Amino acid sequence: MKIGVISDLHGKCDPKIFDILKGTSLILSLGDIEDENIIVDISCIANIVGVRGNMDMGFDPVIFPIERTLKIMDTSIFMAHIIDMSAEKTANVILFGHTHIAENYTDHRGVLHFNPGSATFPREGKRTIGILEIGENGQVGGNYI
């Protein structure tokens, strides 16, 4: 399963985002999108599940909570815009945004920590969108485009 992961668009949506996310089964939004119309536009590609960022003041807290945990193909995915990395999370994957810096590492417990960076306002390097792939055997990998 191929999953798109976006964060920190801050009201801007480069048309290239649609090409990159084409072919994903699901899109996970990690907040600071700022414009709900972007969510509506991107949802024509695949269903979106998201969390609210610190800049998403008007977003419905029921649809976009501060954090959430999903189960996809027996893989537990914890999502939050801002995350306390010292807090113990029980998930196979921890997704977070806020820093505008793409990160992809596995900790000592085997938990994947993944930040898609920002497709519009990166703090380091180039603009990025995350792609997670979950295999039938439960293996999870993350990449950036």
Topology at a glance:
Elements: E1 2-6, H1 16-21, E2 26-29, H2 36-42, E3 48-50, E4 67-72, E5 75-80, E6 93-96, E7 103-106, E8 112-115, E9 130-134, E10 140-144
Parallel strand pairs: 1-2, 2-3, 5-6, 6-8
Antiparallel strand pairs: 1-9, 4-5, 7-8, 9-10
Walk me through what this model shows.
- The chain is mainly β and 145 residues long.
- The chain has one domain (2-144): 4-Layer Sandwich (Purple Acid Phosphatase, chain A, domain 2).
- Helix content is 9%, strand content 32%.
- The protein has two helices and ten strands, in the order βαβαββββββββ.
- The chain has helices at residues 16-21, 36-42; strands at residues 2-6, 26-29, 48-50, 67-72, 75-80, 93-96, 103-106, 112-115, 130-134, 140-144.
- A five-stranded mixed β-sheet has the order 3-2-1-9-10, with no helix packed on it. Strands 4-5-6-8-7 form a five-stranded mixed β-sheet, with no helix packed on it.
- Strand 2 (26-29), helix 2 (36-42) and strand 3 form a beta-alpha-beta unit.
- It is globular.
- The two termini are 17 Å apart.
